[in-house]
Design a protein that fits this description.
The protein is built from three helices and ten strands, in the order ββαβαβββαββββ. It has about 180 residues and is α/β, with parallel strands linked by helices. α1 crosses α2. The longest helix is centred in the N-terminal third of the chain and has 18 residues. Bound molecules: 1-O-pyrophosphono-5-O-phosphono-alpha-D-ribofuranose.
Length: about 180
């Protein structure tokens, strides 16, 4: 299909995303049933996952956001830079980091190290999407929505040149990308 001049092929439907997020929220609600975990979304991509995931939660919870640079991850050295820190004090809290996608694993590894430095009670990880063959990940991701092939995907928070984040499902973006 052609949307806003982009050649998009549907990959994961609205219904599939929603039912998977509900399953994950149910599991987290059960896991932390006597606690008040704090979700930390990684801007910008995770803002829609955060909004939907949290609305499926059946226990009390809090939320905050963090933002890191995106461009540095393409360098072979793979440095990630913090652009906006969390506001909450996560000392002794159950913290759940929420990503839209884990690609190389560099961003989530950076966040793990950084947030561990703030002495949370526990740190766990949720991602809607993950790509195979991640080399730089040496810890498990607790909740994974979908494993996808190594293709460029957009929609549901994921962008191409900051566009297409608002689409309600995940699409493969075809054609020559800049
Ligand atoms: C995307 C995504 C993750 C990161 C994953 O963010 O939201 O944060 O890349 O890639 P990695 O596993 O290779 O580190 P991006 O940097 O594109 O910024 P955005 O969230 O603003 O789109």
């Amino acid at each position: 299909m052609n949307t806003y001049g982009f050649n998009l092929t549907p990959m994961i439907s609205k219904d599939k995303i929603q039912s998977r997020l509900k399953e994950i929220a149910d599991a987290i609600s059960e896991e932390y049933k006597d606690e008040v975990p704090i979700f930390i979304g990684v801007l910008n991509g995770s803002f829609i996952v955060m909004a939907d995931l949290l609305r499926y939660m059946t226990i009390d919870c809090e939320m905050d956001f963090i933002k890191v640079s995106s461009y540095a991850k393409t360098e072979s050295t793979g440095t990630v830079r913090l652009l906006k820190d969390i506001s909450a004090d996560i000392t002794n809290r159950h913290v759940i980091i929420v990503e839209d996608i884990i690609d190389s694993g560099l961003t989530i590894s950076f966040l793990k190290e950084r947030l561990e430095g703030a002495s949370p009670k526990s740190l766990s990880f949720v991602t809607l999407l993950i790509k195979p063959d991640i080399t730089s990940l040496d810890f498990p991701i607790d909740h994974i929505g979908f494993e996808i092939p190594p293709e460029f995907v957009v929609g549901y928070g994921l962008d191409y040149d900051q566009k297409l984040r608002h689409l309600p499902e995940i699409y493969r973006l075809e054609g020559n990308l800049k």
